[in-house]
Amino acid sequence: MTEDQAKAQGIKVKKGLFPWTASGRAIANGRDEGVTKLLFDDSPEAHGHGKILDGGMVGTHAGDMIGEIALAIEMGADAVDIGKTIHPHPTLGESIGMAAEVAHGSCTDLPPGKK
After folding, report:
1. Which pLDDT band, with edges at 50, 70 and 90, does 48 fall under?
2. For this structure, is 49 an active site residue?
3. From the candidates 47, 61, 87, 89, which is the catalytic residue?
4. In CATH, what number is assigned to the domain containing residue 95?
5. What is the pTM for the complete model shown?
6. Count of structural domains, the chain
C-alpha cells in the first residue's frame, strides 16, 4: 500500500523514512543513495500504536532485506515492535529498525533537520 492508496481508502498513515545517508554501512560501502520507508496505521483507533501497513526499500541489496518488512506485516508488528528488534550495527538491515524509530519519534540517529 502506498501513501496515495491509503489516502484514497481514507486510511491515516504515519511514515517512518530513514535515508541511507545516515547509515554507517551504506556510507562505508560508498552507496548511500538508498532509503527505507515504513507506513503505519495512524487512525485514532490505533492510539499511536498502529500496525505496519507496508514498507519499501531502495538501494544496494534492498532485495535481500525486504523479507523482514514482509514478516512484520504478516505478524502485525507496530513501530515499537520493529524498533526494539535487535538489528546488528553496522548493517543495511538496521535501516528498518531506524525507520520504525522515526515513525515512533524515538530515532536518535538522524542529523538535525534543516531550518
Report:
1. confident
2. no
3. 89
4. 3.30.390.30
5. 0.93
6. 1
